[in-house]
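Anyone up for a design puzzle?
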């Protein structure tokens, strides 16, 4: 192997080690996607929430390993992930430091951006995503109502059997009436 080939092989090996992707049930996971989120504890801090409230908060934060799960679900169901336990430790340290849910969410957003949230913020262009399903349902309802009216009007213009002339004797009509009574 030449020196250039060896250098390329070493560079490729190092880049593969740097990416540290593993395969899980949710797809490839980037184990090096974790970035520390740390803030100093508040003076005289006491834990700001119960374990249940902390778990609810973790349902609002998306694990950054590449899966589509929140921190709580990823760390409790996919034990091959190294990112969600680290993010969980950050949440626990901020809770122990006296920080509330909005402050913890803001700290994670400062490090990871809005992509760390399981649902987008209700501001700016994100409102389109929140309102579009309702707009589509209302528009669909108006279109369906209009079609029903149009079809109803078209049916009203068709001749009805009551206006049709029947060439039958009275005996035939009586026989038909008796058959209809028997059928009921």
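Challenge accepted. My sequence:
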């Amino acid at each position: 192997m030449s020196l250039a080939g060896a250098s390329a092989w070493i560079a490729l090996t190092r880049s593969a080690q740097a990416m540290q992707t593993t395969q899980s049930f949710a797809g490839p996971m980037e184990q090096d996607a974790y970035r520390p989120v740390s803030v100093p504890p508040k003076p005289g801090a006491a834990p700001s929430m119960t374990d249940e409230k902390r778990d609810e908060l973790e349902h609002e934060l998306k694990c950054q390993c590449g899966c589509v799960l929140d921190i709580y679900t990823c760390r409790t169901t996919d034990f091959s992930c190294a990112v969600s336990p680290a993010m969980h430790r950050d949440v626990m340290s901020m809770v122990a430091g006296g920080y509330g849910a909005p402050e913890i969410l803001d700290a994670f957003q400062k490090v990871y951006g809005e992509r760390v949230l399981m649902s987008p913020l209700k501001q700016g262009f994100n409102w389109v995503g929140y309102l579009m399903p309702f707009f589509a349902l209302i528009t669909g309802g108006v279109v369906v109502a209009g079609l029903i009216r149009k079809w109803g009007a078209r049916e009203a213009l068709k001749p009805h059997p009551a206006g049709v002339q029947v060439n039958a004797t009275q005996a035939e009509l009586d026989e038909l009436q008796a058959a209809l009574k028997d059928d009921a």
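A detail worth pointing out: The longest strand covers residues 21-24.
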